[in-house]
Amino acid sequence: MTESTHLTKLVDSNIANFITEREPILVSIASELATFADFSRDLLSGGKRFRAQFCYWGWRSVSDADFAADRGASERAENEFAALVELCTGLEFFHAAALVHDDIIDKSDTRRGRPAAHRRFEELHRERGFTGQASDFGTSSAILMGDLLLAWSEELVGQALHELGGGDGVGAVEAAAARASTATRLEFNRMRTEVTVGQYLDILEENAWPVLAEGELLSRAERVIVYKSAKYSVEAPLVLGARLHGAKSAQIGALRAFGLPLGIAFQLRDDLLGVFGDAERTGKPSGDDLREGKRTVLIALTRQTLSSSSKRIFDELLGDPDLGPEQISMLQATISDSGAADRVEELITQHAEDALHALAASPLAEPAKLQLAALATRITQRDT
């Protein structure tokens, strides 16, 4: 079993155990709250565990031992590995919370091939014959589900930092663990701030674009990518794993130099899939980003090539939640014919190459560098 596979199995098990342990707390308050455990379990049973993988390999890149396969590890080494698994699990819960809230904001119907959380609560409302609007109930309930997942993420990170400080005695080793714990906590806090304001920037662009200068739209779309996705999808997990082991500043700098451009490439690929992706592969309807009116780099590049009249028609259609298959196909053709999709492919290649060059020159452990290079290929060349 590879390290990555072993880590994924541990995280999957940790997720299942955590929800199972928290479900009795919910049910002890009210039996109806079992729904939160059920919906959370379903949502977290899917996903590619990219953030957990980057966290693990960030840790391995500054650690000279594979504790996952070590049967004779010291107590402190075992504590650190247990902390790492908790941290990886916490990142997956944080990601799930972000997805729930993102789907509400975007009015998305599906996530990972299932109805989005707010749509599931809407259906619950209808099935039970509740009073009021099903959509209002669905939105309100899913907001709270996302908040609960955030709270659970925080709980898991707290457990991770407690595990890191495990063991008896005081001295240099304990002081180093305390410094690593503080640095990890600060990094996690920074990540939460960045992704939250990044989400706001995304909302801002969807609403403010008509009153902005045309020349600003591309740079603002790039800013959204950095703060809404690139940092928390790749850079922050890498750095969190490294911080947990007490990485040096040069190592942290190297991971950021690799992680940020790779995170940008990751999101650019996501943007292409949001317009052209196969629904059976992505778990979301094809062209969903067009119905949602996402003002992405892809859209900014497309608009730069259009005549005034074509741009006006394009803008009128973009963001219409009732777009039919023919209108989606027309928008897709406009984007393709503009050359914007090809340009985004070039940007993905450019950012991925920048990331790999930074990785090759980094003072990180060679086994981890090989795995990170493989992960880079996987996330930038995916079709789901």
From TrEMBL:
CDD domains: Trans_IPPS_HT. Keywords: Magnesium, Metal-binding, Transferase. Coiled coil: none annotated. Gene3D superfamilies: Farnesyl Diphosphate Synthase (1.10.600.10). GO terms for biological process: isoprenoid biosynthetic process. InterPro entries: Isoprenoid_synthase_dom_sf, Polyprenyl_synt, Polyprenyl_synt_CS. GO terms for molecular function: metal ion binding; prenyltransferase activity. Pfam families: polyprenyl_synt. Its cofactor is Mg(2+). The keyword Metal-binding applies. The keyword Ion transport does not apply. Belongs to the FPP/GGPP synthase family. This is Geranylgeranyl pyrophosphate synthase.
